[in-house]
Amino acid sequence: MTSEATIDPDARGEGRFLAKGALVLAGTEVAARVFERLGADCSFEQADGGRFARGQWLGRARGPLRALLAAERTALNFLQRLSGVATETRRCVDLLSAAGGRTRLLDTRKTTPGWRRLEKDAVRAGGGTNHYDVADPVYEG
Predict the structure, then answer these.
(1) Which of 34, 37, 65, 136 lies deepest, with the highest CB count within 10 Å?
(2) What is the mean pLDDT of residues 47-61?
Protein backbone atom coordinates (compact mmCIF):
# COMPACT_ATOMS: atom_id res chain seq x y z
CA MET A 1 0.00 0.00 0.00
CA THR A 2 2.83 2.39 0.83
CA SER A 3 4.44 1.89 -2.58
CA GLU A 4 1.13 2.50 -4.34
CA ALA A 5 0.58 5.67 -2.34
CA THR A 6 4.10 7.08 -2.69
CA ILE A 7 5.73 5.74 -5.87
CA ASP A 8 4.86 6.84 -9.39
CA PRO A 9 3.43 3.81 -11.25
CA ASP A 10 5.80 4.55 -14.16
CA ALA A 11 8.94 4.64 -11.99
CA ARG A 12 11.48 1.98 -12.90
CA GLY A 13 14.50 0.74 -11.02
CA GLU A 14 17.20 -1.86 -10.63
CA GLY A 15 18.40 -3.82 -7.64
CA ARG A 16 21.51 -5.96 -7.37
CA PHE A 17 22.19 -8.97 -5.19
CA LEU A 18 25.48 -8.83 -3.28
CA ALA A 19 27.18 -11.74 -1.48
CA LYS A 20 27.74 -10.69 2.12
CA GLY A 21 29.88 -13.78 2.65
CA ALA A 22 31.32 -16.71 0.71
CA LEU A 23 28.46 -18.88 -0.51
CA VAL A 24 27.13 -21.47 -2.90
CA LEU A 25 24.17 -19.99 -4.76
CA ALA A 26 20.80 -21.76 -4.72
CA GLY A 27 17.17 -20.76 -5.18
CA THR A 28 17.67 -18.66 -8.29
CA GLU A 29 14.75 -20.16 -10.18
CA VAL A 30 12.18 -19.53 -7.46
CA ALA A 31 13.59 -16.05 -6.71
CA ALA A 32 13.39 -15.10 -10.38
CA ARG A 33 9.79 -16.35 -10.53
CA VAL A 34 8.83 -14.12 -7.62
CA PHE A 35 10.04 -11.06 -9.54
CA GLU A 36 8.51 -12.23 -12.81
CA ARG A 37 5.10 -12.84 -11.20
CA LEU A 38 5.10 -9.22 -10.07
CA GLY A 39 6.21 -7.84 -13.44
CA ALA A 40 9.99 -7.45 -13.07
CA ASP A 41 12.96 -9.23 -14.67
CA CYS A 42 15.60 -11.05 -12.63
CA SER A 43 18.84 -12.73 -13.70
CA PHE A 44 21.86 -14.24 -11.98
CA GLU A 45 25.57 -14.34 -12.84
CA GLN A 46 25.73 -18.14 -12.38
CA ALA A 47 23.31 -21.02 -12.07
CA ASP A 48 22.58 -22.77 -8.79
CA GLY A 49 25.75 -24.36 -7.47
CA GLY A 50 27.94 -21.41 -8.45
CA ARG A 51 30.42 -20.29 -5.82
CA PHE A 52 30.72 -16.65 -4.85
CA ALA A 53 33.16 -14.79 -2.63
CA ARG A 54 32.17 -12.05 -0.23
CA GLY A 55 31.55 -8.83 -2.14
CA GLN A 56 30.71 -10.43 -5.49
CA TRP A 57 27.53 -9.52 -7.33
CA LEU A 58 25.15 -12.48 -7.66
CA GLY A 59 22.62 -10.97 -10.02
CA ARG A 60 20.11 -8.20 -10.58
CA ALA A 61 16.43 -7.41 -10.84
CA ARG A 62 14.98 -4.67 -13.08
CA GLY A 63 11.54 -3.35 -13.72
CA PRO A 64 8.76 -1.25 -12.23
CA LEU A 65 9.89 0.07 -8.86
CA ARG A 66 6.68 -1.02 -7.18
CA ALA A 67 7.21 -4.60 -8.41
CA LEU A 68 10.82 -4.62 -7.22
CA LEU A 69 9.87 -3.46 -3.74
CA ALA A 70 7.01 -5.94 -3.51
CA ALA A 71 9.17 -8.90 -4.61
CA GLU A 72 12.52 -8.28 -2.95
CA ARG A 73 11.89 -9.61 0.57
CA THR A 74 10.22 -12.84 -0.57
CA ALA A 75 12.88 -13.47 -3.23
CA LEU A 76 15.68 -12.79 -0.73
CA ASN A 77 14.13 -15.16 1.80
CA PHE A 78 14.25 -17.96 -0.78
CA LEU A 79 17.80 -17.10 -1.87
CA GLN A 80 19.16 -16.79 1.66
CA ARG A 81 17.64 -20.00 3.01
CA LEU A 82 18.42 -22.16 -0.03
CA SER A 83 21.92 -20.73 -0.49
CA GLY A 84 22.52 -21.48 3.19
CA VAL A 85 21.55 -25.12 2.61
CA ALA A 86 23.78 -25.32 -0.48
CA THR A 87 26.71 -23.61 1.25
CA GLU A 88 26.61 -25.87 4.31
CA THR A 89 26.23 -28.93 2.07
CA ARG A 90 29.29 -27.87 0.05
CA ARG A 91 31.29 -27.36 3.26
CA CYS A 92 30.47 -30.91 4.38
CA VAL A 93 31.10 -32.42 0.92
CA ASP A 94 34.50 -30.71 0.79
CA LEU A 95 35.41 -32.07 4.26
CA LEU A 96 34.45 -35.58 3.20
CA SER A 97 36.46 -35.24 -0.01
CA ALA A 98 39.54 -34.01 1.86
CA ALA A 99 39.32 -37.05 4.14
CA GLY A 100 39.54 -39.35 1.13
CA GLY A 101 37.42 -42.36 0.43
CA ARG A 102 34.18 -42.69 -1.45
CA THR A 103 31.74 -41.34 1.11
CA ARG A 104 28.80 -39.41 -0.31
CA LEU A 105 26.73 -36.91 1.62
CA LEU A 106 23.02 -37.74 1.43
CA ASP A 107 20.26 -35.47 2.61
CA THR A 108 17.44 -36.52 4.89
CA ARG A 109 13.93 -37.39 3.87
CA LYS A 110 12.74 -34.91 6.47
CA THR A 111 12.35 -31.47 4.95
CA THR A 112 10.55 -28.28 5.86
CA PRO A 113 6.85 -28.56 4.96
CA GLY A 114 6.26 -27.07 1.52
CA TRP A 115 10.00 -26.78 0.79
CA ARG A 116 10.84 -30.39 -0.14
CA ARG A 117 11.73 -29.90 -3.80
CA LEU A 118 13.52 -26.59 -3.09
CA GLU A 119 15.64 -27.97 -0.25
CA LYS A 120 16.53 -31.11 -2.20
CA ASP A 121 17.57 -28.95 -5.17
CA ALA A 122 19.72 -26.85 -2.82
CA VAL A 123 21.45 -29.97 -1.48
CA ARG A 124 22.31 -31.01 -5.04
CA ALA A 125 23.54 -27.46 -5.80
CA GLY A 126 25.93 -27.85 -2.89
CA GLY A 127 27.27 -31.15 -4.19
CA GLY A 128 25.22 -33.49 -2.01
CA THR A 129 23.04 -36.39 -3.07
CA ASN A 130 19.33 -36.66 -2.43
CA HIS A 131 18.12 -39.54 -0.29
CA TYR A 132 15.38 -39.88 -2.86
CA ASP A 133 16.11 -38.81 -6.40
CA VAL A 134 13.51 -36.10 -7.08
CA ALA A 135 13.24 -37.33 -10.69
CA ASP A 136 12.24 -40.80 -9.43
CA PRO A 137 8.56 -41.56 -10.12
CA VAL A 138 8.27 -42.84 -6.54
CA TYR A 139 9.32 -39.41 -5.21
CA GLU A 140 6.45 -37.75 -3.35
CA GLY A 141 7.68 -34.14 -3.54
Answers:
(1) 34
(2) 97
DSSP, res 106: B
Helix ranges restricted to H, 13-100: 28-37, 65-98
Return the domain boundaries, the chain. 2-125
Q: Which residues lie below 8 Å from residue 121, measured CB to CB, with a gap of 6+?
A: 26, 48, 82, 134
What does the alpha-carbon distance between residue 37 and residue 111 come to, in Å, rounded to a whole number?
26
Fold topology of 2-125: Aldehyde Oxidoreductase; domain 3 (3.90.1170)
The predicted model scores a pTM of 0.88
**Cα distance between residue 83 and residue 121, in whole Å:** 10
Question: What CA dihedral angle connects 56, 93, 122 and 137, to 10 degrees?
Answer: 150
The SS3 assignment for 57 reads strand
Confirm if 61 and 79 have CB atoms less than 8 A apart: no
Active site residue 120: no
Could you give the CA distance from residue 66 to residue 76 in angstroms, rounded to a whole number? Answer: 16
CA diameter of the chain: 61
| Strand, coil or helix: 49 | coil
Q: Which of 20, 73, 102, 110 is catalytic?
A: 110
